[in-house]
């Protein structure tokens, strides 16, 4: 079972162990994880603005001189700095992000061999797309690992937890249709946060979701299949 980055690297561990025969996994659970790693990070509300800020100040002199320097002087956090700039100057931000495409391509190229999408589409691992017992858990509008990519991106449908769900061909478990089985994508509503499976928020607003997520994981790993669907009231 892996959460967030642990789910992304966990996918690699399970997949490669199938080829090497080094471990005997019989199923896998990935919570708040996704694929197309470079684009995922750019689309993340938590990591994206900070990444864009630090790249932009190296690649774009105007941004560095008029924005980054002022933010540093006023002790404004990197992510907040870029977000404020992009909100107030959407055209300029779009131009800068066009400059960053080459970086995204280079970054994805470097890590593509361990990206969940690459592994799932490897001929020797075809079972990951069709039969390997898999439980994927999502929190609606996750701010750390996005559900999907930036709408204007050509790769949006590959990004995040929903992109990985599509590649793996899982059965979607939603409010309208709670699902069970050995290949399920459980989509919790937005009360659930990125860290809900680890522990509830301080106000316990997502405590029911924490309990449900943990119950789903336990149920799945016990028999390599989900025997009881999550309560529909907690789902998207």
Task: Explain how this protein is built.
The protein is 47% helix and 9% strand. The chain has ten helices and five strands, in the order βαβαααααααβαββα. It has helices spanning 5-20, 37-43, 48-59, 61-73, 78-88, 90-99, 101-111, 116-120, 160-168, 207-223; strands at 2-3, 28-31, 134-139, 171-173, 183-188. Strands 1-2-3-5-4 form a five-stranded parallel β-sheet, sandwiched between helices. The longest helix is centred in the C-terminal third of the chain and has 17 residues, at 207-223. The model has no long low-confidence stretch (mean pLDDT 94).
At a glance:
By secondary structure, the chain is of the alpha/beta class. It has helices at 5-20, 37-43, 48-59, 61-73, 78-88, 90-99, 101-111, 116-120, 160-168, 207-223; strands spanning 2-3, 28-31, 134-139, 171-173, 183-188. Helix 3 packs across helix 5 and helix 4 (61-73) packs across helix 5.
Find the structural class using helix and strand composition.
alpha/beta
Number of helices: 10
State the major sheet.
5 strands, parallel
Q: Which whole number gives the mean pLDDT?
A: 94
The low-confidence parts are: none
Distance between the termini: 22 Å
By DSSP, the count of extended strands is: 5
How many individual domains?
2
Strand order of the largest sheet: 1-2-3-5-4
Features of the shown structure:
236 residues; 10 helices; alpha/beta; 2 domains; Lipase
Ordered list of secondary-structure elements with their pairings:
Blueprint (H helix, E strand, L loop, with lengths): L1 E2 L1 H16 L7 E4 L5 H7 L4 H12 L1 H13 L4 H11 L1 H10 L1 H11 L4 H5 L13 E6 L20 H9 L2 E3 L9 E6 L18 H17 L13
Parallel strand pairs: 1-2, 2-3, 3-5, 4-5
Helix pairs in contact: 2-3, 2-7, 3-4, 3-5, 4-5, 5-6
